[in-house]
Structures are given as structure tokens and as C-alpha cells.
């Protein structure tokens, strides 16, 4: 949360300033709002107020984000829970009915693509994820294979043709689902969008922002999502899971579950790109985005590691 763009002016600024008058610690102050970079479906603005060194961030939802399975009430609850775990930003206010989330600005540094492959960073990320998973339950469910099916139906209703990768991806998804039915785990509060763009290193801990996809789900989706999003190697996956489990070496069944969730993560991400083709007004090639994730999913599912994981996830 350190890169800024232009200062906000005009009608939107007036609307946000008016809404912020309902936040006691901000109300009545002269405000400067500056656009923060990053994000595809939302806009974020840094809030600076006269008479205080405190800073906040206000988050505005994009159009039709509810179709992506996003609930701003759940996002609010998840952010509060993550803050309680010492991982998420502190929530200053949730402004209804607009659904604006106001959090305290986190002073820190971004986590680079190179840094996520460093052993110490992997350990710190694992620590933050474990803290979140050990926190209180949050409202909402995140079941990625059902989400992929819902995205397909919503996209079709908006005239998006069935993607060429769907049939193969759905067959792989059924294989994973059958394997996981033999190895159930309790649901845990999960972030479900673990990109390093959502990480801030405050010098003490890797803090995580952007909780809009949060929900109760399989904790290994978070681990697999982080792994595949950053191209972790098998050895790095083992290091991640050992740090998460606080063990010397992770069990084969747990490594197998992580491997399966890497594939499931790409399935859900590909279908996110498919639905965006029917709802987004952004100048983004979501067809190419979806195709890239379908291709990566298929490539990982063709590896011997995936075939072995289907058996190993149940312990043998």
C-alpha cells in the first residue's frame, strides 16, 4: 500500500468525503484522497486527514462483483478476523449501505516476485496463513469446484461461450473431488487469493490485504493457491508446508493435498476469467487470461506428481 497515483477530485471525491463523515475519527477533517495502484475489480484510495498523522484506506467495490461470489459483508467480517489474528489491516469502519470498507493504512514494503522464493519469506508467509486458518469462523463458504460451476452458468447466461478447456478441466476437478472425499478436513477461514500483490511486509510480519474472496474452506486451497500463483517448486512446497505445520518434514498425504489444490486453484482462476468476459468493462483480455490458466492446470495435471497425489492424499 505504498504506490500512489493522482489525487482524487470531482464528484466521486465528494461522495466519498460525505460518506467518511460517518466515521468519527475522520469526520470534520479536511481530507485528501489519493488513488492506490493495483486491483482489477476494486478501487482503493489512501485517506490523509488534516490534524493527524494517521492514514486510512477506503475500498470501493467494482460493478457486478457479487456475481463473482463476493459479499462485502463477508469481506468485512473476514478482514476483522484477520486483523484480530495480527495479519489483516485494522478495520476503522464499514460504511453502509454503500459497502465502503475503511482500514488503517499499513506502513510496509511490497513482497517481490523474487522474495517469495526465499526460504525466510516462505516461512513468514506460512506463519501468516496459519494464523488466519487458526482464527475464528467467518460467514460465507468458499468451495472452489462449485464456484467454477457457478461461474460457467453465470457466464453462459451472459452470452459467453463454453470455454474449450472446460470439459477437460471439469474431468480433472471430478478426479480431485473424489480423492478428497476420502480425506476430509475441517473447514477453516481462508483468504483464497494469495498473490504477493496482496502482501505487505511491515517488518515484523507478512500482512495480507484484500479479503473479498474470503470464506470457510479447505485450508490447503490457500497453500496451493499461494504455491501455484508464484510458481513454487516441489522443494519449496515442502518447505512451505513444513513451516505451516511447524514440523521438520510434512506428511506425504499433506503434500499430496497441496499438489491437488494447485490444480484446483488454476481451475477456479480460469473460470473467473471466463465470467469476467461477460461482466467486465475493463480493457483486459480475459479470454487469454482464462486460456493461460486452463493450460497451466492441464500441464500440472499431466505431471506424475498429480497422479501420485490422487492416491497419496488419502494416505496410501
Provide mean pLDDT, rounded: 93
Helix content: 40-55%
Number of domains: 2
Described by the principal axes of the CA atoms, the overall outline is globular
Strand content: 15-25%
Query: Could you give the order of strands across the largest sheet?
Result: 1-2-3-4-6-5
Number of strands: 11
CATH superfamily of the largest domain: Aminoglycoside phosphotransferase (APH), C-terminal lobe
Written description of the protein model:
The protein has 316 residues and is α+β, with helices and mostly antiparallel strands. It folds into 2 domains: 4-104, 2-Layer Sandwich (Phosphorylase Kinase, domain 1); 109-312, Aminoglycoside phosphotransferase (APH), C-terminal lobe (Aminoglycoside 3'-phosphotransferase, Chain: A, domain 2, Alpha-Beta Complex), CATH 3.90.1200.10. Helix content is 46%, strand content 16%. It is built from 10 helices and 11 strands. The strands form 3 sheets. It has a 6-stranded antiparallel β-sheet with strand order 1-2-3-4-6-5, with helices on both faces. Helix 8 packs antiparallel against helix 9 (286-301). The longest helix is centred in the last third of the chain and has 28 residues, at 252-279. It is globular.
Amino acid at each position: 500500500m505504498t504506490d500512489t497515483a493522482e489525487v482524487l477530485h470531482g464528484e466521486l471525491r465528494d461522495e466519498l468525503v460525505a460518506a467518511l463523515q460517518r466515521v468519527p475519527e475522520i469526520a470534520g477533517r479536511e481530507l485528501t484522497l489519493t488513488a492506490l495502484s493495483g486491483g482489477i475489480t476494486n478501487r482503493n484510495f489512501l485517506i490523509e486527514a488534516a490534524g493527524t498523522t494517521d492514514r486510512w484506506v477506503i475500498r470501493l467495490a467494482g460493478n457486478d462483483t457479487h456475481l463473482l461470489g463476493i459479499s462485502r459483508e463477508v469481506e468485512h467480517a473476514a478482514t476483522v478476523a484477520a486483523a484480530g489474528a495480527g495479519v489483516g489491516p485494522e478495520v476503522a469502519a464499514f460504511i453502509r449501505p454503500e459497502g465502503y470498507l475503511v482500514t488503517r493504512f499499513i506502513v510496509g514494503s511490497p513482497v517481490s516476485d523474487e522474495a517469495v522464493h526465499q526460504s525466510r519469506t516462505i516461512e513468514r508467509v506460512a506463519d501468516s496463513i496459519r494464523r488466519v486458518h487458526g482464527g475464528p469462523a467467518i460467514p460465507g463458504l468458499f468451495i472452489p469446484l462449485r464456484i467454477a460451476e457457478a461461474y460457467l452458468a453465470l457466464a453462459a447466461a451472459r452470452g459467453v461461450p463454453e470455454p474449450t478447456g472446460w470439459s477437460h478441466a471439469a474431468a480433472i476437478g471430478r478426479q480431485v473431488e473424489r480423492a478428497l472425499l476420502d480425506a476430509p478436513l475441517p473447514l477453516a477461514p481462508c483468504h483464497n487469493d494469495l498473490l504477493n500483490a496482496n502482501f505487505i511486509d511491515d517488518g515484523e510480519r507478512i500482512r495480507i490485504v484484500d479479503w473479498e474472496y474470503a470464506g470457510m474452506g479447505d485450508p490447503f486451497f490457500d497453500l496451493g493457491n499461494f504455491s501455484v500463483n508464484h510458481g513454487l517448486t516441489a522443494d519449496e512446497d515442502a518447505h512451505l508446508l513444513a513451516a505451516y505445520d511447524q514440523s521438520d518434514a510434512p506428511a506425504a498425504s499433506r503434500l499430496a493435498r497441496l499438489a491437488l489444490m494447485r490444480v484446483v486453484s488454476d481451475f477456479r482462476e480460469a473460470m473467473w476469467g471466463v465470467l469476467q468476459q461477460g461482466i467486465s468493462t475493463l480493457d483486459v483480455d480475459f479470454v487469454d487470461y482464462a486460456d493461460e490458466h486452463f493450460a497451466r492446470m492441464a500441464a500440472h495435471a499431466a505431471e506424475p506428481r498429480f497422479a501420485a497425489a490422487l492416491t497419496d492424499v488419502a494416505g496410501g
